[in-house]
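Dear support,

I submitted the protein below through the web form. The confirmation email said the job was done, but the results page showed an empty box. After a refresh the structure appeared. I'm attaching both so you can tell me whether what I see now is the final result or a partial one.
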Amino acid sequence: MKKTKKIAISGAAFAGALLSFGVAGAWADDLTQLPAAPPPPAPPPPPAAPTSPLIAPAITGPLTIQLPPPKYTLGPLGDVYVDGIGSGLYQWQTNPVPNVLPGNNRSAGGLNNGQVFVQKTDGLFQFYAQAGAYAITSLGSPFISTPLATWGANSPAGNLWGWFPQGFAKIAPTDNFSVEGGKLPTLIGAEYTFDFENINIERGLLWNQEPSVSKGGQVNYTRGPLAFSLSFTDGFDSGVWNWLTGSATYTLNPANSFEFVAGGNLGSTHINTLRTPILQNNSSIYNLIYTYNADPWIIQPYFQATHVPANFGLYGPSASTFGGALLVNYDVGAGFNLGGRLEYIGTTGNNNLLYGPGSGAFSLTFTPTYQYRYFFTRGEVSFVKANSVADGLAFGSNGTATTQTRLLVETGILF
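What the results page shows now:
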């Protein structure tokens, strides 16, 4: 049997223990009365990412204007922002069509952007002005150099939109309602007019069927996730006001949006120039556009249909186009992006909207981009394959080639 060890405690020791316990307990009670040490201060919140106060230019990406933009206070006019771009372009292509426009040779290069953007973006009265030089390059179409596009109303390009391609005044009595008028960017399509605004350097086959700049007026209204715009303009910059265009956009969340656009000529227009092609300017056009934009992806598929009604006193039988495109950009990081576009367009009817009645075309474009602050550079390779072409209306010196490959390099500053 295990023995239990007896512990003897004297009265004095027991009293001392009680005294010690009492002192310790009282000391503990005193500690509980002391104020608690204040918690360490919370770290300051990270600075908010700058948001763009700019009206325009609209930029899909991956190129970005550095924020905050330069701002100047001009007395009673208030705060005015000034931005701009300067860039050069070199292009090499197979099967050029040299007899369409001067300089449309196997290779071309030079200044393709030298523009300044000035705008006031708050208050009741606002405005946007874009001025300078630009070139236009789009898939399957002749390259329009800066001198042809910008200078001289008698140039073969018809001067396109001149040295002042876009600019408008805007009245905004509330945050969700505004009216604007002037030389407006079109509501139609998923690609913008100038190359720096888009994922790719060249605009696509579908863009070739769309108006780019129109003179007229536009009303804008937003309510919650819905945004509406309605414009009355001269369509393909014809100088004849007979185009009505509307757009409706639903923003599901910051990453996802859906847009429907419809527009068309309410009458007929007899003008036929490079910037106002007679068939397209007498057409109606429809878009369905979905946009996903959340790092590291931009994904934008869209569908487009156009129709030109018959007018035998003006241009002849009817014709239509139908097509779709997928625009994609992936942000690799450290300033590098990889962009691409896949598209197809087909035509029906007995009039020529592409490379002859009933012709079609497929395209593939790849555009790597690097931007460090204001400096950017990007390259591009594109391929177009046409089908069911009419002799003399496709590629090459005789207009009978059915493919065209292009290599492009662009570099400059965007500030």
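Response: this is the final, complete result; the empty box was a page-load delay. Confidence is low (pLDDT under 50) at residues 1-34, 46-50.
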